[in-house]
Design goal:
alpha/beta; 7-stranded parallel sheet; two-stranded parallel ribbon; 12 helices
Length: about 290
C-alpha cells in the first residue's frame, strides 16, 4: 500500500455543549476535499481520541468512512493505553471498513523497546490490518527506536512510520536505513519540505485542518519539481507551523478552523481555551495563509 499526498489528522468538531457536531464535521471535510487532500486520518491525537468514549470514537470512524470516496485513503487512529484495548479498537475499525491504522506507543506506559515490539506484533497477529507506526516522543515520553523498527520493518503489513520527533536527523536516518522497507511519513509539520526532500511521499498533517490549501499546494509544488517555489511556500507556512509546535497544538488548530470560516468548536477539558494574546499571535501568523495564492 503506497501512501501519498496530504492526509489531515482530523480534528473532532464539538458543539457548544461539548458533544460531537456532525453538521460542522461534514462542512469541514467538504472544505478539506475541495483543497485537495488525498485521505482521512480520524481519531488521532489532533482528534482528541483520548477524550472520546468508545461509542464516540466509533461514531467518528463511521462518519468519516461514509463520507470518504473509494479513491481516498482511510487510516484510523486506534491507540489506547494498553494492548488489549488497542486490539479491540483495531478490530472495530476493521469491521467499519478501515484496512490501515495509525498506532503510537501506548500512552502513559513508557514501554521498553522489547515491550513495544511485542505490543505491535500482538496487534498484527490479532487483526489483519496494515499499520503505520507513529513516533511522537514529545507526547508519549518514549521514541520508537531503531531496535523496534528493525524488528518490524520487513513485516508485510507494517507499511510506514509517521515521524513526529521534530528531528531532521531522525527523518534522514529512517529514510536511508529503511529505504524500500518502510515509508517515511511526514509528521513534523514545520520541516515538512525537508521530509519531502528525503523521500516522504505522504504527510499526515494536523495543520491541514486549518491550512489545507496551502499544505496541498506545497505538496503539489514539490511534486512538480519547482523546489524554489516550494521553499517560498514553506517559508510562508513556517511561522504558523512553528507557533503550533510551541504548545496548545489542538486548541490552535481548532481556532485556525474558526479563522478560516469553518468553526469546529472548542477542545474538551482538560485542554483549556486560548488566551486573547495566543489567538492574536496565531491569527497574525495565519494572515498570509488566509490570503494564499
Amino acid at each position: 500500500m503506497k501512501l501519498s499526498g496530504v492526509m489531515p489528522a482530523l480534528v473532532t468538531p464539538m458543539d457548544a455543549k461539548g458533544e460531537l457536531d456532525f453538521v460542522a464535521f461534514k462542512k469541514h471535510l467538504a472544505m478539506l476535499r475541495e483543497a485537495g487532500v488525498t485521505g482521512w486520518v480520524p481519531c488521532g491525537s489532533t482528534g482528541e481520541y483520548n477524550f472520546l468514549s468508545d461509542a464516540e470514537r466509533e461514531q467518528v470512524l463511521m462518519f468519516v468512512k461514509d463520507f470518504a470516496l473509494p479513491t481516498e485513503t482511510l487510516i484510523a487512529g486506534t491507540n489506547a493505553p494498553h494492548t488489549k484495548s488497542v486490539i479491540a479498537n483495531t478490530k472495530r475499525a476493521k469491521e467499519i471498513g478501515y484496512d490501515t491504522v495509525l498506532l503510537a506507543t501506548p500512552f502513559y506506559t513508557k514501554p521498553t523497546q522489547q515491550e513495544m515490539i511485542a505490543h505491535f506484533k500482538a496487534v498484527l497477529d490479532a487483526v489483519d490490518v496494515n499499520i503505520v507506526l507513529y513516533s511522537y516522543p514529545g507526547k508519549d515520553g518514549v521514541e520508537i527506536e531503531y531496535e523496534t523498527l528493525d524488528a518490524l520493518a520487513d513485516h508485510p503489513r507494517v507499511i510506514g512510520i509517521k515521524e513526529s520527533s521534530g528531528s531532521l536527523q531522525r527523518a534522514i536516518g529512517i529514510a536511508t536505513r529503511y529505504e524500500g522497507r518502510l515509508q517515511l511519513v511526514s509528521g513534523s509539520d514545520d520541516i515538512a519540505l525537508d521530509f519531502m526532500l528525503w523521500g516522504a511521499d505522504s504527510w499526515i498533517c494536523g495543520p491541514a485542518n486549518c491550512m489545507a490549501k496551502a499544505c496541498c499546494d506545497l505538496d503539489r509544488t514539490f511534486r512538480s519539481g519547482d523546489i524554489k517555489k516550494a521553499k517560498q511556500q514553506m517559508a510562508t507556512l513556517y511561522t504558523a507551523m512553528n507557533i503550533l509546535e510551541s504548545g496548545k497544538f489542538v486548541q490552535k488548530v481548532k481556532y485556525g478552523c474558526e479563522v478560516q470560516g469553518i468553526p469546529v468548536g472548542e477542545c474538551r477539558m482538560p485542554l483549556g481555551p486560548l488566551t486573547n494574546e495566543e489567538k492574536a499571535a496565531f491569527r497574525a501568523a495565519m494572515e498570509p495563509i488566509l490570503n494564499w495564492k
